[in-house]
Fold Class I SAM-dependent methyltransferase.
Amino acid sequence: MNGRNVDIDWESARRANQANWEDRVPVHEEAYGLEAFDDPDHLSDVVRDDLAAMSAFLPSGGLSGLDLCHLQCHIGTDTVSLARAGARVTGVDFSPSALHTAGELATRLGVEATWVETDVLDARAVVVGDFDVVYTSIGTITWLDDLDRWAAQIVALLRPGGVFFIRDGHPALYALDEDAASLTTRYPYFATGHAQQWDDDSTYAGDGRISHARTYEWPHSLSEILGALLRAGLRLLHFDEGRTLPWQFSDRMVEVAGGYAWPEAERDLMPCTYTIIARRD
């Protein structure tokens, strides 16, 4: 059964997840519309939305001249977009194939970027330098088992005064049964000490199939996410919840400006994303 709780050690889960994400790269190369980046003014929709939220908390109202570390950067479309918005970017991911694609994209577009292959939970030990902004967005931290360790990496990567930004799928959304005919809770909202096992040979973008279909994720409540960041020493600047999502979580979701949303009658009943902006003092 998909989403069942299982006992699995981090290294075994990580290996399975990495194999899955390696398989996703050629599918996403086709599905992400990389040719759109041939337009030098093109930014990903994710980054356009995130810049609108982030800019008010940056020193000069934007990324120009700032050093930014993008955690879990995948094939680099958002990283390239952040560079085009003015940042000096370092992209971090655990998938060598994703970073190869990211590097080729940046080179083809004439965008300067540094790419680092490492688990996000080990980022500080591998990434060189420190940063004005640490950024992560959409579909990220459910792949991590230890949020205190994650938050410690973020603080260690930030300069004093630096800003951390995350926008991600809402934990309440992830607790829903994606196949139900109504908003019905099926999966844990709170951490259980177990991973959730999934067997799915599809991916959120494109029609290709994945050979390594088994993955493992961990539920994290909002209190766990915020608590980890606050315990690590970050100061909360901004928190928000959104009604739209950049991918179609459920077949019942409808396409709207900015992505997908629940049918209009349900749109005010369930958040789709959360956004946190915090500062290292």
User: Anything to note?
Assistant: The mean pLDDT is 96. Residues 10-31 form the longest helix (22 residues). The two ends are 45 Å apart (CA to CA). Helices lie at 10-31, 45-54, 77-84, 96-109, 123-126, 147-157, 171-174, 222-231.
